[in-house]
Design a protein that fits this description.
Elements (H helix, E strand, L loop, with lengths): L2 H53 L6 E8 L1 H5 L4 E7 L10 E6 L6 H13 L12 H30 L3 H4 L3 E11 L4 E7 L6 H10 L9 E6 L14 E6 L14 E3 L17 E3 L42 E3 L17 E3 L55 H15 L5
Parallel strand pairs: 1-4, 6-7, 7-8, 8-9, 10-11
Antiparallel strand pairs: 1-2, 2-3, 4-5
């Protein structure tokens, strides 16, 4: 790589990427629900094609669905993903059912960046005129496509819990284990949805979790298990799905729970203190008495002025039973509490800006000291603002029996100690 090309990337490509992708992030968040609905229609139609093939005996049970980005097609101006529906052998299925997903929405920024680069090369006095060729720009452009691909992966991961509820998917003949992956054609891919038909032996599962193998617990699927009372603190469960798991009394403190999915789980009296819960989604879960002190779960970019990865989706507790739960010093900006049960719930000195409480009775919720700018509630909703909130005194929770000021100092110190642990 020439010195001019290295300098061009550092002084032109990277600053421009930050500027363009910050704007793209805003557009994505504004149009996220519409894009999700479009994907849901695509997925349902794809499943209909597979269902038709199964009915006439041209394909067996489905075990894998893969979405593959085709970089060469991008250079032809076509942002099409190859979809392949395969049996349990995945890549060795001799006759996968193929289709296409149009992801043009995710790659328009490439045209903007290319136009800006060319403008710089043709600018009088440019340091790069004559030093950077068209093939150089095309090579850089293909590399920059990975950022749009990250948004496609992000969207499909968000949509899959709803996608599998469509009628055509429900009626498909499926393998006991099923997985959806997004990646590059015949290259690295990422799991965005996974089910495990075999719940496994609970004692063996507890033993496996107790081993705390580094990097072993992300992108997994734990289903139909009783893991109540366990201490799972300090673990990395990013992108893992938990379905119909009993976790009553368990501890998940200081965990990486990025984009985890929790469906119909018993999470009564669990502890989540200091965990990173960006994009986590709880659906039809029981979380009575759960403790969420100092959790980080805000939506959007980590730094609103620096783009590195797609922003986090809002954490969702929609329809969840959160009676008597404690949220103290929690960052819940943009959180979704629609339809949740919040009787006796405490939000003490929390960031609840832009949170959504519609369809939720907040008459017995304590929001003392919390930010509620932009929060949405039903018309006429009211809630008591009591005195300075204090952590509830509960058996076994003596470590959080302190004033708000003490807890603030405690979590600030703890966060500094843990900074970078989950990067």
């Amino acid at each position: 790589m020439t010195t001019a090309l290295v300098q061009f990337k550092q002084e032109i490509v990277i600053p421009l990427r930050n500027q363009v992708m910050l704007r793209f992030e805003q557009m994505y968040q504004q149009n996220r629900e519409r894009l999700k609905e479009e994907f849901l229609r695509h997925f349902a139609k794809q499943c209909e094609c597979v269902l038709d093939a199964q009915k006439i005996g041209e394909h067996g049970a489905v075990g894998h669905v893969t979405y593959s980005m085709l970089r060469t097609r991008l250079m032809d101006g076509q942002a099409l993903y190859l979809t392949e529906v395969a049996d349990e052998t995945w890549l060795f299925d001799p006759s996968p059912i193929e289709g296409e997903y149009d992801a043009s929405w995710a790659f328009g920024y490439l045209d903007v960046m290319l136009a800006c680069w060319e403008e710089e090369l043709h600018r009088p006095g440019s340091l790069y005129a004559g030093s950077i060729s068209r093939p150089d720009l095309e090579h850089i452009l293909l590399k920059e496509a990975e950022h749009g691909h990250a948004y496609v992966t992000n969207l499909i991961h968000l949509a899959m819990p709803e996608a599998v509820q469509c009628e055509s998917f429900i009626h498909l003949e499926k393998c006991p284990s099923f997985e959806v992956r997004v990646g590059e054609y015949l290259d690295v891919s990422e799991s965005v949805y996974k089910t495990n038909g075999d719940p496994g032996d609970e004692s063996e599962m507890r033993k496996w979790l107790a081993e705390r193998f580094e990097g072993a617990y992300g992108y997994a699927a734990l289903e139909h298990l009783d893991l109540a009372g366990g201490d799972y603190s300090g673990m990395d469960f990013r992108y893992t799905a938990f379905r119909d798991v009993a976790f009553g009394g368990a501890q998940f403190e200081a965990n990486n729970l990025l984009n985890t999915v929790w469906e119909q789980c018993d999470l009564t009296d669990t502890r989540w203190n200091s965990s990173q819960m960006y994009g986590a989604r709880f659906r039809k879960c029981r979380m009575v008495g759960a403790i969420f002190h100092g959790i980080e779960a805000r939506q959007g970019l980590a730094d609103p002025e620096i783009w590195e990865i797609p922003g986090f989706h809002p954490v969702s507790f929609a329809g969840t039973d959160l009676r008597e739960a404690d949220f103290v010093l929690a960052d819940l900006q943009g959180a979704d509490f629609t339809g949740a049960l919040l009787e006796g719930t405490v939000f003490g000195v929390c960031n609840l800006a832009d949170a959504d409480f519609r369809g939720t009775d907040v008459s017995r919720v304590d929001f003392t000291g919390s930010r509620l700018e932009g929060a949405q509630m039903d018309t006429g909703a009211s809630c008591p603002i009591q005195g300075r909130p204090a952590a509830r005194k509960r058996k076994g929770l003596e470590h959080i029996d302190r004033t708000i000021e003490d807890q603030l100092a405690y979590f600030m110190e703890r966060n500094l100690q843990q900074k970078g642990r989950m990067a």
